[in-house]
Amino acid sequence: MKSHQFGPDNPAATYVAHAYPEETIETGEATINYAVAGAADKPALLLIPGQTESWWGYEAAMGLLAENFQAFAVDLRGQGRSSRTPGRYTVDNFGNDLVRFIALVIKRPVIVSGLSSGGVISAWLSAYAAPGTIRGAVYEDPPLFSSEVNTSCGPSIRQSIGPIFSLMSKYLGDQWSVGDWAGMLEAAKTELPEWLSRAIVPMMFTPDGQIPQRMKEYDPEWGRAFWEGSVFASCDHARMLASVKCPVLYTHHFRLVDETDGHLLGAASDVQAKRVCELVAQTGNSIEYKSFPRTPHSMHGEDPKVFAPLIVEFDTKLKALGR
Hints:
By secondary structure, the chain is of the alpha/beta class. Helix content is 37%, strand content 16%. It has a domain at 19-155 and 235-320: 3-Layer(aba) Sandwich (Rossmann fold), CATH 3.40.50.
């Protein structure tokens, strides 16, 4: 077994150069790495990556967004060049890192847009950031309800992608302390549910067995926090959504629920998406729901020419509302 170790303590083996300069800011507990595109006289946009994604997942989209925004793309704690914080991967900590980032770096009201787990953090900011901080929030295919262990609506994380997070945690270890990549690939054939191994593994792992760059920059303790439920231990999704304080744009991508056993392929089921819209609407804030059933999970990565105009259109609508 060849053991791999990646992360900020082993930068030469972990990181590669990108098209935009990278900077860091200290929040008090964590060092947050980020990149910026666009002029400071344009509206501010905060881009929040999903699990196993660093800021540069937005690289192609940033070039398009820079025409209309000053776009800030961040590495969340535990990903990219940002700090590893063992035992501290919770949505409240992720959200509060970004509250501080907005105050220290952006310094003005901002649109927040997050993919997947980043979309849940976007929802957190839309609910819990200080009033007036968030102009509007984009939820890009977030696993709302479906990433909870004990959820109040639809399939839970144990019925969706959760077993993959458990597998990564087991074979890679917190902070890549185990690093058995080859063992994980082999175990995926027998330790994952057959439907998940068949559908998801080919998309997540390269055929030649090489470690994708995005995985080198990811702390597998994230996966353990989601599988065990500690990431949302103090943040019930329904309660959070009932506290939203700004307009929302929600994009919902590919999804399929197996009628025989209830497992979910995709970030959220239609039932869960409907409940998200109901809860946000009950706050008195608008929520625009856009269904893209054939679009991959990361619209900004796979089709930035569709993603960027959606954000521009949302900004125009916010301005019309006086936000």
